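Write out the 3D structure for:
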Amino acid sequence: MGSVFPNLLFLLFSLGIPTPSSNCPTELLSFPTRHVLLTPAATLPLTLSQEEGGEMDEPSKKPSPVRETAVMTHGILMGIAFVIFFPAGAILIRLLRSPNAIWIHAATQIFAYTLALAGFGLGVYIAVYPGKQINVYHPIIGIVVIGFFALQPVWALVQHYYWRKEKKRTVWGVVHVWLGRVVLTLGMINGGLGLMLSDNTTKGEIGYGVVAAVVWLSWVGVAVWSEFKKVKEGGPAGESGMEERKEASPGGTEDGK
């Protein structure tokens, strides 16, 4: 029995759970239990009740109105960007048979990224103040997503340049398309993680999941349909095939992404 207590302390220390000591404050903020799945243990201080049962107390403080507004606005901006405008821009360039399709796509994505940047700024504020939560999975994924989306115009412009020069697809076009697909999917998933982290209602989480899933399936469906249509028409599959046919068609774009 003498070794049980030291072993218990070692286990708690390994999990990042603070143990009573002279350097540990007696009053620590609590957190919802399900945040354990979203946050590294070392960043989640616990507070035990004074009863022997050791159950967690309810949060002792309510978020300030400013923080609540920031969280709500962050969620709205990111939801509009990642569930509406980013997928819409990807769908429109596949469906529109217009010489302006590429510019409509670009304008839609720029607008979506502007909304995402505004939401990202609020997200940084939420993660840093009043306590640092920047190492939670949701903001980490958000930083990765926003960072990769910032590179998307670079790949697109390089592909555009080589298409004008050589009339063929390059690796930059492939990177632009597939990186966009992966990062947008990750951004949609991260929206659900954000709702869980903010203690949204179960109905709200389910609602977001259903809408995001429908939009994602519609977007993927249009992409698959577009590829099958190109093959059926006798042209090469992939982005290069789209480029060739759109240039040849009266309503096509020059690089046809």
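The first helix runs from residue 4 to 14.
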